[in-house]
Design goal:
By secondary structure, the chain is mostly helical. The protein contains three helices and four strands. The strands form two sheets. A two-stranded antiparallel sheet has the order 1-2. It has a two-stranded antiparallel sheet with strand order 3-4. The longest helix has 34 residues. The termini are far apart.
């Protein structure tokens, strides 16, 4: 697994050939100038789905690893907390992905541009 170019955490996500974790990728998207036309808006929304999907995949892998450490199915007391943390992270990532899909769907079907992507000034 590669290290994120910015925060050095492990990641499978790449942006223009450079390894980048989902959190750093999202931060870069937020800092960019808001899109000015429908193609740019659609691209930004699809990019958010890609990032959220990568985060879900990463969280799912962490969850499976946490559960997989206990072949008997009965974790040690500290293992229970690791499983809960991994489960919470996976739940959060899935909600983020669903939100990203909803935003793209609303834009495509109804032309609703999310507030954070509207052109300022």
């Amino acid at each position: 697994m590669a290290e994120c170019t910015y925060c050095k955490s492990e990641t499978k996500l790449y942006d223009n050939g450079a390894p980048i974790c989902p959190k750093c990728s999202e931060a870069r998207v937020i800092k960019r100038k808001p899109p000015q036309n429908t193609d740019q808006i659609r691209t930004a929304l699809v990019s958010q789905i890609v990032n959220a999907t990568a985060r879900v995949s990463e969280a799912n892998q962490k969850f499976n690893e946490a559960v997989g450490h206990f072949p008997s199915g009965l974790p040690h007391p500290d293992g229970v907390q690791r499983i809960k943390n991994a489960s919470n992270e996976l739940t959060s990532a899935r909600k983020e992905m669903m939100t990203a899909h909803k935003r793209l769907n609303e834009f495509i079907e109804h032309g609703i541009v999310p507030e954070d992507l509207k052109r300022s000034g």
